[in-house]
């Protein structure tokens, strides 16, 4: 793993964050991400990346402190595993995943889990890739969302009971969001501007603790959208996606 860097308190301020390395409109989000990471590192959170200016990284944490509506004992949770552009096809995804497996075993974990979907979807790990490396579906909810796990001892995690609701008592466009993804601050700005310009009621709910994330009424991996009381997507929204969702 000599070509990879693990972020720590001493290098978080200076190392680039791979998923938002060049777009100026996301720099505010990068600073928010850096602050978020500094608070998470003492909890065992890991952000490991290729030592290049490319989108090649893995991010994971102990499930007990992971900001996702998944429960289980002694597991690791993978938030994101991303290899993009010219770096595809060089074994980086496999190498980063294997480093996570090795780390989990060294820590005496029972396994690793990740949220995916039955079809390839942005902002979620690819199911086929994870299955190729031994992950199996251990829980599902409607919409094709699945919890995949690589168990070392036969135990498995599961979605929390609240996830299966997938409904809220509010018809307004409602977005639950975290501070982990550097793309989110700019997405929030776009959503607010669009809704204000089109007189669309909007409710934004910041998920600011792992406890609040684990009690959410839907699947969540930093972002979740409801409209007319029903869960819609975990995809980040831009103006085009908003128009399609709201039919305006």
Please provide a written account of the structure.
This protein is an alpha+beta fold and 248 residues long. It has two domains: 157 residues, Gcn5-related N-acetyltransferase (GNAT) (Aminopeptidase), CATH 3.40.630; 84 residues, 3-Layer(aba) Sandwich (Glutaredoxin), CATH 3.40.30. It is 25% helix and 27% strand. The protein is built from six helices and 13 strands. A seven-stranded mixed sheet has the order 1-2-3-5-6-8-7. α2 links the parallel β5 and β6. The radius of gyration is 18 Å and the shape is globular. The relative contact order is 0.14. The model has no long low-confidence stretch (mean pLDDT 92).
Q: What structural category characterises the helix and strand content?
A: alpha+beta
Q: What is the CATH superfamily of the largest domain?
A: Gcn5-related N-acetyltransferase (GNAT)
What is the alpha-carbon Rg in Å? 18 Å
Helix content: 25-40%
CATH class of the largest domain: Alpha Beta
Query: How many β strands by DSSP?
Result: 13
Give the averaged pLDDT, no decimals: 92
Total helical elements: 6
Per the principal axes of the C-alpha atoms, what is the gross shape?
A: globular
The share of residues in extended strands comes to 25-35%
Strand order of the largest sheet: 1-2-3-5-6-8-7
- Output the helix-strand order: EHEEEEHEHEEEEHEHEEH
Poorly predicted residue ranges = none
User: Into how many domains do the coordinates divide?
Assistant: 2
The third-level CATH topology of the largest domain is: Aminopeptidase
The name of the CATH architecture of the largest domain is: 3-Layer(aba) Sandwich
Q: N-to-C terminal Cα separation, in Å?
A: 49 Å
User: How would a crystallographer describe the biggest sheet?
Assistant: 7 strands, mixed
